[in-house]
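Sequence only, no structure available. Ideas?
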Amino acid sequence: MDKETLADPQSLKQMELEEITSKISDLDKWRKIFSLHGLEISHPTPQKCQDHKLDEEKEDAAGASQTTSALKQSRFPSNILYSIPKALIVSSNLGGQPITLEMAAALRRILFGSTFQVFSYEWKRSYFRFHDPYTDLAYALVPDKGGAAAVQMAVQVNIIKYLLFVRNQEENVQLQSLCEISQKDQEKALAAALADILWTAGEHQKATVCLVTSDIYFTPSKDYKLDHFTESVQLFDFFEKDTTQQFLYDHIHCLKWEGSHGVILFLYSLLFSRTFERLQKDLDLTTTHLLQCRLGNFICRQALLNIILTGRASPHVFNGSQKLEGEGNMQKVLHGVFSRSDVGYLHWSKEEVEHYRLLQVGSMLKTPKLPIWLCNINGTYSVLFSTNRLLLSDWKMEHLFDLYFYNGQPSQKRTVHLTIDTHSHHWEGNHCEEDSDAEKRFPSVEMAIRTKWEGAAINWNGTVPFF
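Reply:
I predicted one. Tokens follow.
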């Protein structure tokens, strides 16, 4: 700026006006971008509307290059105030079926066993959020606290299934491929995983997707407690898996943004896809509803996890069914897992071992079609998987092989690489008899793995063992 300009007040005012005009232009640009996503800028001042540009993802012919650290999942500048919920509401004219009071009451009964229970704050704030793209955990969801984490990790195994064995048609892919995915890849994987779960629950005939609209579809009842969320749901029915997946992808922001109630919407979609009639047939006398209140929070019963893993709300993890002798010589049947699904389940609990009541998982879940397992280890859910799609197809491959472990905890920054040796039994060597309780000497992760491969030696490849 020259001295003449500094000395001329009129010139200074003109420059200030031009600067303000430029900032207003930038603000208008952001308003247009936000409006495309249904968002609204909430009273920003010119000072807050500084010139910030989005870091665009740049993809090369082979896939994608690294995005900068400034690229966040929201993809919006952090210093502009905005209102999220509008992006999570779809038009009431989109063509779905409005929920009725009878439907909402049926949801409450199958979830809580009562129409007066509502989801806790932890459940309401839970949604499907990934780690940053192009990082060591780009493929992985960030689980929330509380009972919703079990649902998120059960969905996680299906995301890994898609990324390793559905999207890629090669026999094997490297772990690195899971780290080289963009935000678009993440959204495609989430939509594919959810569509697959819903389609399987609907017995490959129909899937239902639930989304929130701006309308309210029924009035309060003395027998039903409003939650100011369920009353605005619309149901969208699909009779082809591909159209289900495309619809989910088109509206994926309704499940993966803060404030979306994404996990609850998925649960509603899952139950409507399964239908209440099928759910009643799936359950037995041990399980009448899918959530259990424990220490003030609602946690998932096994039947709910089994719908996600197998498509059926089987209350138990043993193979087939078991008969119990009831009063008056009446037999009662308990429902387990009747066939191998694509993904499996492993279970280990120190507390249960100490009380001689460790849950025994049947071979249908221990040996799924693909080497991916949801693990319940001491009540915390995690994922164990292999990149070798043929691991469980040839017993010779199970002599020496690699597994990868993700537990979703904030302390884990990268996928843990484990090497499993089923021929060597040195894990039990060099220990005296008085220290014979294996679960006291070895991490619970290892003990969970040994419920599948008994006596296996496990190398953590430099990682300090945990759990």
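Residues 354 and 439 are 9 Å apart (CA to CA).
Hope that gets you unstuck.
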